């Protein structure tokens, strides 16, 4: 893909003569009906110079190669840019692929899985995840995914916390058919998993406001900037046939620019190189007050800053968020992103690239538990991190602009048609797939969440809380935190069969980390913990104090005392269905 999207100015004629290459023009949701749209592709030359705004500073000396590297790093280095041995494993008659190929197929948007409910010989299949920047999905793509899930999956589609779809249960011999169908429906699974930038989030509601539209366009450009360029994806699933988008000139220019030592010269992967990133990398874009994207849980959080007339002027940048952790290993932890600085709007792609390269060059590659950028920033501190990023960026960051308070906004439902009543608990709850689909799951999450929500609502009614009151609940089957339970007011983190850690203290605005309150709470014993917590919240909360704010103010010692001494309340008949 690199040879086609980065050299239009010099070799456009040669590119268009390649009979294997088909092109489409993409602009938000307006997909063309035809795949052969070369006449719409803008021809542009690529300049290697940066805007004159950049004040050059010294390019950082790249650190010495880490002496110890994880097994995955060796697999990536020997893979010929994420091809080998996956290309050979897909051709075998075995229902599964080997360990090296299992690591590589993640970069193609897939995980090898098996049915955790079954005993005996493992029944292997694959999960495929799409990549849909800012959550945009064409009707053609949705219908294709719906058909693929029925024909080749287990008949379900899952919408993820990162605005993508997951199709589960695809067997190995059908992978190529499914992936190629997704590509030909103007989408992709490339980079939906693996050690690279994942799907870029933005508020999904198609509001006509300039800041929302600018946020979505920025998310699309950032996604394009950090898309792999070496063509391994199309070699694998389309036998080398290349499907290209007409990228904006500013994206191509930012990717190619090497003024400050960010790129691998003469590499098919100018930003990623042979090793890609140390671990997954997550980015979200939003506007002030709208925290529908959980902005502080991302490696990079980008916030549009406008003038008094609502015209976008630049961006505030947060860095260092992340949810994953490991049970009983206190050196792993969830972390909120923190302010890095402000950049003018014309510099955003260069700033993002500088942050990514800083993680690429300095993130740990010896122990994957500590390879996320949050651990690099925690180790260095934000000041050192900012200094190194500025060297790759080429100038100093401006001071962070003041922002109003964040608010979690749910866009579920048909906004124009007023859907029927939905329990507020359901509107903000999230769960990961867990059993039987995820090999990391310790206990249930997705399948058990509907019952948990019903039980929470029953406790609400029992202690006298109103039907329109709610708390943010998130459930995950293991400590990796894919459903972001460490931001919840009430988080359930699987720590054994039918057992959960209880996390408390997040806020409805998704701006505060929760803390671990209790371990090894059996699913059948939830009411023994929840009843006293919700009862005293109702009785002793301050005006408009959320459940998470209440648990933080009161303190865990007092909460534990209430749980230990709880003898129950007199049940009253339910008033609401």
From TrEMBL:
This is Uncharacterized protein.
């Amino acid at each position: 893909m690199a040879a086609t999207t980065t050299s239009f100015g010099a070799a456009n004629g040669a590119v268009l003569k390649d009979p294997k290459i088909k092109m489409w023009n993409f602009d938000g949701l307006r997909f063309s009906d035809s795949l052969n749209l070369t006449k719409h592709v803008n021809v542009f030359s690529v300049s290697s110079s940066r805007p004159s705004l950049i004040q050059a500073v010294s390019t950082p000396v790249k650190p010495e190669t880490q002496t110890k590297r994880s097994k995955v790093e060796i697999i990536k280095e020997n893979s010929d840019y994420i091809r080998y041995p996956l290309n050979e494993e897909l051709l075998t008659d075995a229902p599964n692929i080997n360990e090296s190929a299992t690591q590589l197929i993640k970069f193609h948007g897939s995980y090898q899985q098996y049915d955790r409910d079954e005993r005996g010989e493992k029944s292997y299949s694959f999960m495929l995840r799409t990549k849909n920047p800012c959550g945009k999905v064409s009707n053609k793509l949705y219908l294709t995914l719906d058909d693929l899930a029925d024909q080749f999956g287990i008949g379900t589609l899952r919408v993820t916390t990162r605005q993508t779809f997951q199709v589960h249960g695809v067997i190995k011999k059908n992978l190529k058919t499914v992936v190629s169908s997704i590509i030909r429906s103007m989408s992709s699974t490339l980079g939906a998993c693996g050690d690279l930038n994942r799907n870029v989030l933005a508020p999904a509601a198609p509001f006509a406001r300039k800041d929302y539209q600018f946020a979505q366009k920025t998310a699309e450009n950032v996604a394009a900037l950090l898309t792999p360029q070496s063509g391994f994806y199309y070699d694998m699933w389309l036998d080398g046939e290349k499907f290209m988008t007409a990228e904006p000139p500013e994206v191509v220019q930012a990717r190619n620019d090497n003024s400050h030592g960010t790129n691998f010269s003469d590499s098919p992967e100018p930003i990623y190189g042979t090793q890609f990133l140390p671990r997954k990398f997550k980015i979200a874009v939003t506007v002030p007050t709208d925290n529908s994207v959980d902005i502080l849980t991302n490696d990079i959080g980008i916030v549009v800053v406008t003038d008094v007339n609502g015209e976008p002027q630049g961006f505030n940048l947060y860095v260092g968020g992340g949810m994953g952790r490991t049970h009983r290993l206190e050196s792993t932890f969830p972390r909120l992103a923190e302010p890095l600085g402000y950049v003018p709007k014309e510099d955003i792609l260069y700033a993002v690239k500088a942050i990514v390269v800083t993680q690429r060059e300095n993130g740990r590659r010896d122990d994957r538990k500590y390879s996320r950028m949050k651990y690099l920033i925690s180790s260095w501190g934000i000041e050192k991190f900012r200094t190194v990023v500025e060297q790759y960026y080429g100038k100093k960051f401006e001071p962070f602009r003041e922002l109003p308070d964040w608010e979690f906004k749910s866009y579920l439902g048909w906004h124009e048609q007023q859907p029927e009543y939905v329990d507020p608990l359901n509107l903000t709850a999230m769960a990961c797939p867990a059993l039987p689909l995820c090999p990391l799951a310790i206990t249930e999450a997705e399948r058990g969440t509907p019952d948990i929500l019903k039980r929470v609502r029953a406790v609400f009614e029992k202690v006298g809380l109103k039907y329109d009151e709610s708390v943010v609940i998130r459930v995950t089957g293991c400590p990796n935190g894919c459903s972001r339970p460490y931001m919840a007011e009430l988080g359930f983190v699987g720590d054994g069969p039918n057992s959960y850690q209880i996390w408390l203290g997040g806020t409805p605005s998704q701006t505060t980390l929760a803390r671990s309150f209790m371990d090894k709470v059996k699913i059948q014993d939830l009411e023994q913990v929840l009843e006293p917590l919700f009862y005293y919240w109702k009785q002793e909360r301050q005006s408009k104090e959320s459940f998470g704010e209440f648990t933080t103010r009161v303190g865990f010692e007092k909460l534990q005392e209430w749980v230990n001494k709880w003898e129950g309340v007199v049940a009253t008949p339910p008033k609401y269905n």
